[in-house]
Amino acid sequence: MNGIPFRIAKISIDDFSFDNQFEACSDVSLEIVSSFSFGVDMKDYIIKCDGEYQYLFNEEIILLLKISTFFEIEKEAFNDFYNSKRDFSINKDFLRHMATISVGTARGVIFAKSENTQIANIVLPPINLMEAIKDDFIIPNTEIQK
C-alpha cells in the first residue's frame, strides 16, 4: 500500500433514500449493513470502490446509500498491479485503504443529506474493513497497459 500515488478523481452517489419520518429512541434496535465491491478502468488507470450502506430497523430499510469513489492511480504504479502471470492484482490492504476513504465519504454524505432529521443522529459507525475485505482483487490474465 505504501508508495502508491493516487488521487480521488470522482465521487458518485448512485442511490440515496431514507425515511424522514423515522423517529429514533434510546432502545431502538438498529442494524447497519455495509458491503464493498471494486472495479477497474484499465484505459484511464482508475480503480472504483463501490460501497453500499443500509440502516435497518425491524428488518426494514430506513436508509440506503450506494456510493462510488473513483481513484486515479499514477500510470507506473497502476502497471505495478500486474504480476508475473499477467494477472491484475490489487492487494487487500490497498483495497481497505480505498474503502476507508469511501466510508468517511459515506459518513459525510449521510449526515449532510439527512441533516435536521432523526437519521442524522445515527452516525455511520467505524466499519471493520479487515472483516469486510478479506481477499485481494484479481482480474486473471490481463494485458499490461502501454
Descriptive account of the structure:
The chain is of the alpha+beta class. The protein has one domain (6-134): SecB-like (Bacterial Protein-export protein SecB, Roll), CATH 3.10.420. 22% of the residues lie in helices and 39% in strands. The protein has 3 helices and 6 strands. The chain has helices at residues 75-79, 92-114, 129-132, and strands at 6-18, 30-41, 46-57, 60-73, 88-90, 137-139. A 4-stranded antiparallel β-sheet has the order 1-4-3-2. A two-stranded antiparallel sheet has the order 5-6. Strand 3 and strand 4 (60-73) form a beta hairpin. The chain is elongated and about 55 Å long. The mean pLDDT is 91.
Structural category: alpha+beta
Termini separation: 23 Å
Q: Tell the overall outline.
A: elongated
The second-level CATH architecture is Roll
Q: Say how many strands there are.
A: 6
Q: Total helix count? A: 3
Helix fraction by DSSP (H/I, runs of at least 4): 10-25%
CATH-assigned fold name: Bacterial Protein-export protein SecB
Which band does the percent of strand residues land in? 35-45%
| Topology pattern, helix = H, strand = E | EEEEHEHHE
> How can the largest sheet be summarized?
4 strands, antiparallel
CATH class: Alpha Beta
Computed over alpha carbons, the radius of gyration is 18 Å
Query: What are the low-pLDDT stretches, counting only 5+ consecutive residues below 50?
Result: none
What spatial order of strands do you see in the largest sheet?
1-4-3-2
Task: Assign the CATH superfamily.
Answer: SecB-like
Overall mean pLDDT: 91
Number of domain modules? 1
